[in-house]
Every structure is written in C-alpha cells, then in structure tokens.
Amino acid sequence: MSAAAPALAAPLSRAHKVATTLILAALVALPLSGPHQFILHMLSLVAISSIVALGLQLLLGFSGQLSIGQAAFYGIGAYASGLFATKLGMPFPAAFVLAGLVAALTSLLMVPITRLTGAYLAVATLGFSILVYLLIKNEEWLTGGSFGLMGIPRPSLFGFVLTKPGHAYLLCVAVAAIVYFALLRLEHSRFGRAINAIRQNEDAARASGLPVTLLKSQCFVIAAFVAGLGGSLYAHQVRYLAPTDFTFWKSVEILIMVVIGGMGSLFGAVLGAAVVVLLPELLREVGDYRMLVFGAILMAVMLFGESGIAGFLSQCLKFFSKR
Amino acid sequence: MSAADLADLFAGGLAIGCVYSLVALGFAMIIRATGIIHFAQGELLMLGSMGALSALWLLPKMPAVLVLACGMIASGLLAVAMEFLVYRPLRLRRVPLMNVITATVGMSILCINAARIIWGSEPLRYPELFSSSAYGFFGVRVSPQLVWIMVFGVVLMGLMQLFLKYTRTGLVMQAVAQDPEVAQLMGANLSRMMVYTFAIAGMMAGAAGVMFGSLFFSFFEMGFVIGIKGFVAATLGGLGSLGGAMLGGILFGLIETFSAVYVSSAYKDGIGMVLLIAILLLLPSGLVGLWRRRS
User: Fold this and answer.
1) Is residue A273 in some structural domain?
2) What is the CATH number of the domain that holds B280?
3) How many C-beta atoms surround the C-beta of residue B104 within 10 A?
4) How many domains does chain B have?
5) Is B98 within 8 Å of A124 when comparing Cβ atoms?
6) Which of A62, B136, B160, B193 is buried most deeply by CB count within 10 Å?
7) What residues 13-72 of chain A have any CB closer than 8 A to a CB of chain B?
C-alpha cells in the first residue's frame, strides 16, 4: 500500500455536507417519480452491494488488508437471514441483525489470519470463501444445496410488509446510508486514525504502542458484520438464494467495486458498486460482447490510479471550480 | 483398495499435480519479479489449451510434443502481449500494486469472454494424443497419458531450473527478482526481464493447459478454477520460491486426488483449502520456510 493520503478523506467540508444531503434527498425522492420496477430493483441491488463494498473499504482502503473472501460473509449473512425467516419464522428486523451477528461470529474463526499480510492474507480469505461456498452447495439439509433456498418472505417492519418495490428500495437505501455514516464517523475517530497509521506503516504503528493485531482483527469483524447485513437485505430483496450467488467471483466483484471507486474513499465504494452492478446492464446493447467491454473498461479505469473514479471526479470538480 | 488402484490414484495425483506445479511456477515467478498476483494466469492456461486444440484441428497428425509446443507458444505470446499492452503502461504510470492486480482481473474477464465468443461455451474434447495401451511398471499398469504428462512436466520444470541457474539471462532474471534496484545499477535491463518473466510464466501455463486439456477437456471457464488452485499451490510452497511452487503443486494434486476418494468428492477442493489455511497459520512462509529455518 502506498502512503498517499486517500482521496476525500479530509474531515467533511461544508460543500461535502451539502453534496451528501442533496444526493441522499435525490435517492429518497426517486420512487416518487414512479420509475420502472426493474430500475428500482437494480438500484436496490446497488445499495446492497454498496453496503458490502463499504465494509471492504474499511478493511482494504482504511486498514490496508486485502481480503478476497467478502462473498463468504455476504453469503453467510444471506443464508442466515433466509433460514431464520423461513425455518424459524423470525420477523425481518431480528433476522437482519442476527445475520450480521452470525457473519461477524464466523469471522472470529478467521481472526488468527489477520496476522498474515498481502498476498498471504488474500489467499487465506480466498480459501475460506471457497470453503463457505462448498458448505452452502453441499449441506442440502440446511441450505437446499444447488436447488437454492426458496420462499424467503419480503422484508417487514413493525408488522407492515414492504410489498412495493419502492419501499424495499427505501429500506436498502436507508441501511446503506446508515452504514455509510457510521463508517464515516469511524474513519475520523481515534480508531480510524489508528488503522490509517497501520496501513501506512505497520511497524511504526506498532512501535507507537498501537495494538496492531487487535485493531486489524476488529476491522475484519466489522467488515464481516457489514457484509452480513448486506447479505440479509439481498436475501429478502431477491427472495431466492442459490450457491452460485456467492462464489469466488462475487468476492472479486466486491474487490473491483472498492478499487474501481477509489481506495480509501467511502463515497468511492458506493460509486464503484453502482458501476459494477449497473454497467453490465447498460452494456446489454452490445450483447455477447458486454463482459468483454466490461473487462476492458476495468483495465482502463485502473489507469486513474489509487483514487479511482472518486479521485477522478474530485479532480474534475477542482478543475471546473478553478475556472 | 488394491495396490494397483492405489498406484493408479497416485499416478493421477502426480499428473494433475504437475499441471498445478506449472501454473504455480508461473504465479511464483510473476510475484517474485513484480509483486503482482496474476489473476489472468489461469486464462493463459485456458487460451494455451484452446490454441493447441485449434492447431490440432488444422493438422490432426501432429505429435504430442508439437501440440505442447503450440500451446506454450500461444500462451507465451499472449502473456508478452498482456505485459506490453496493459501491465507495463500501468507500471510506467506508477499506479499502486492493488490497481495492477485489479487490472489482471479485468484481463481475466476479457480473456474468458473472448474465448467464449471464439470457441463457444461447450467443453471441447482433445483427440487422443498418446497411445492408448497402458504401460507396465513392475507389474503395475499406468495409463500412458499420465506417464507422459509427468515426463513432460518434470522435463519442463527441469529445463526452466537449468535456464535460471546456468544461463546469463536466467541469472539476471533471478537478480532482478531479488533486488530490482541493485540489479538495475549493475546494468540489468529491468523491463526486458519483466517480458522474459511473463513469457516463461505464460509458456508454463500453456503447457499446463495442453496437459489438462488432454486429461479432461478444455472449455472457456476452465482456467479460473485451475488458476486459483495454482495460486494456492504456490502459496502452499511459499510464495516467491520456485522450488516451493513445484512442491506445492504436486502436493496439492495428491491431496486433492486422495481426499476425493477417501474423504468426500464434494469437499475435495475444501480439504486443500483447510490445509492451506492451517499451513499459513502455522508456517507463514510456506513449506519452504520450514526447510529454510532448519538450514
């Protein structure tokens, strides 16, 4: 990891606050304009992916730990929530919180590996992700195996079932916003500064008396918790889970979201999620070639450097505000 | 289980282990020289396999050695093209390593989908490359395919070691991998060595592709899983050590084959992963770390 300060990491300026409020207001007001159901569904998926990407941003962008196994926790959260709802008839809010907790508890199993670094950590998380996928696929008595888990109820809040796509969309946006602001606070807290120090120079951080291993494991658990929450929302949004939703590719996709959006930028993680989820849909016109184009675009965006799309946008803003 | 079955299983494990070793070698070489986890390594394997198969369609009477050479040349050229067109421009712009690694994922997506468009999404069968009558060793009969794969694998890996140890270029490549700055001060041409590294890694992957294709079949998504296993094998041996990568590959092949029979075929990939995590926790520098600590 280079030592360059992440883009947009400065404490929130007034312009930032205004921009955030405007974007949030626009997102909340969107269902009022009566868009197509499919668009709302896709935007809900963007919100869900943002949640998972935000978690990985904390892990990779803030603390510098490369995990290519976030799909494992996403899948654990999704299946936990789905099973709690279908088999135990648990109400949505309880299943939602428990899904996050189950994912976080599972990540405790993996906490010893946070002492690994770089490619070793990456391959260990990758191995874990493959294990979880195999468990989901083969333990048919629990997860339904390759047939998938069906009949997951729609989310409900206070006895009110969210049948309209607009309402489910608002739920996803609300959770994404809460996660975003929580991580933003975390970023500028003592904890956030500590993990930033670890990312820049682990030895120096340790020499300054920071409990490096503890902090790194905390990041790992928080990221898993957040991914579990995202998984729960996904389960209730799509209402059908299949093991193929949580392969190693999903982990790579989540990683792409963070890197493409901009490392170390929470807003970047959201942007990256939007690009990764929506771009293949937008490229539908080129038919068979869409993933080909997607791969090429991915490589081209890497030329922007560490700060990704978020950094590119903020440079554009600077350029135009100077004029 | 009889001794003959056991020997057959062992040979199968060794053969698939050779395939993993070749892929792992490519991973280890690239990581050593550049620090990049090359996610498109598996795709190089797939494209080599496809390329050799296409050559075989054109000239059906080609001997096995030539088919292997076709695969190696195809993958080697592709790897060099990747380095020239994508990785080098990225390096010259001094983007962080994480970006280059993500670009290799992009490259892998590109290759998979290009292959799907060119060769279709059906698995393609290799014609028989070797004679079909089994060879006998001390009363144990082994399929000729497995024997030849092992022979080719060992010869290729041996040749590569000889190249690295006894030729000037090989020695420079090793020096660059160990300390690029000092090597450059001594007059090593860094970017040329990078090209060589990618070329050799690509050729190894191409050979592995032909071997795997002749064992099973070849199709556009094959590289992905084998690539991951090769990466795991490289880590098992200790990333960045070439001997470790070879050992890791063969070990991984044996573990996978035996656990498919003795434990559970559904979890055969899982057992390798559990082992991987355990080894990383107990021996963070891989199997080679154990040996180095002793000496």
Assistant:
1) no
2) 1.10.3470
3) 23
4) 1
5) no
6) A62
7) 60, 66
